Automatic annotation (TrEMBL):
This is SDR family oxidoreductase. InterPro entries: KR_dom (IPR057326), NAD(P)-bd_dom_sf (IPR036291), Sc_DH/Rdtase_CS (IPR020904), SDR_fam (IPR002347). GO terms for molecular function: oxidoreductase activity, acting on the CH-OH group of donors, NAD or NADP as acceptor. GO terms for biological process: fatty acid elongation. Belongs to the short-chain dehydrogenases/reductases (SDR) family. Pfam families: adh_short_C2 (PF13561). Residues 6-185 form the Ketoreductase domain.
Length: 263
């Protein structure tokens, strides 16, 4: 029960990594606000948690709207008395060549993925500062570290999330708040299902030493560590959850070397 007695907001908690992390946090004792722009998805996650005996509620939240963001934090603190953890998983993505990326696409991705991160983290950090404790976990991407085709807006936004998280780590440390960033690689989420073509999947797997996509649950385990007291001396860190993608260079792989896991 690594999060017993703790209160968390999980943005983007209606699907994918956010939903998986919400379930993992709840299993470890956290009380949860599921904040998502998709009201139906947020409600479904919160309902599933409550049916499993956990304490959770849903809020429809547009992370680009400062009033909605402040309301999510305020309602959570009012209901549970404090806010200990923010996992900011809300985001969108597109796969569009740099030369073909339209300004409207650029602005929309930056607004949700980067500005939304800034607004949500700032509001949560203010509540955490007043109590002298907090865990902020942001979601970047391997696309925010390595250049890749079709990632002009998405990669720029996710690189910005990393830079912002490091600044937060430095400035918020005196208040007992840590700020860390997850950089998932290819993870089987609803967003990836929309973004990754068959060609993209083939190219991705060729660069992943583990030769497979990850699961939202595997990212949730990393989020759990960064959200808990076990990571008390870890801040400003970018943790890749990518099957070795960021570590890999040239890989010569023969078909005989690709074996199915045993047992």
């Amino acid at each position: 029960m690594m999060l017993q007695g703790r209160t968390a907001i999980v943005t983007g908690g209606g699907s994918g990594i956010g939903r998986a992390a919400a379930h993992r946090f709840a299993q470890h004792g956290a009380r949860l606000c599921i904040a998502d722009a998709n009201a139906e998805a947020a409600t479904a996650t919160a309902q599933a948690l409550c049916e499993a005996g956990h304490d959770a509620f849903a809020l429809t939240t547009d992370v680009t709207d400062p009033q909605a963001v402040n309301s999510a934090v305020g309602v959570t603190v009012s209901r549970f008395g404090r806010l200990d953890i923010l996992l900011h998983s809300a985001g969108i993505g597109i796969e569009q060549a740099f030369l073909d990326t339209e300004l409207a696409q650029w602005r929309r991705v930056l607004d949700i993925d980067l500005t939304g991160t800034f607004l949500m983290c700032q509001s949560a950090a203010r509540a955490m500062r007043d109590q002298g404790y907090g865990r902020i976990v942001t979601i970047s991407s391997t696309a925010g570290i390595l250049g890749g085709t079709g990632r002009a807006a998405y990669g720029a936004a996710k690189a910005g999330v990393i830079g912002l998280t490091r600044v937060m780590a430095v400035e918020l440390a005196p208040y007992g708040i840590t700020a860390n960033c997850l950089a998932p690689g290819a993870i089987e989420t609803e967003l990836v299902a929309r973004m990754h073509s068959d060609e993209t999947r083939t190219v991705y797997r060729a660069g992943i030493p583990m030769d497979r996509y990850g699961t939202p649950g595997e990212v949730a385990e990393a989020a759990l560590f960064l959200a808990s007291e076990a990571s008390s001396y870890v801040t400003g860190h970018v943790l890749g959850v990518d099957g070795g993608f960021l570590a890999a260079g040239v890989m010569h792989r023969r078909h005989s070397e690709r074996q199915e896991p045993q047992g």
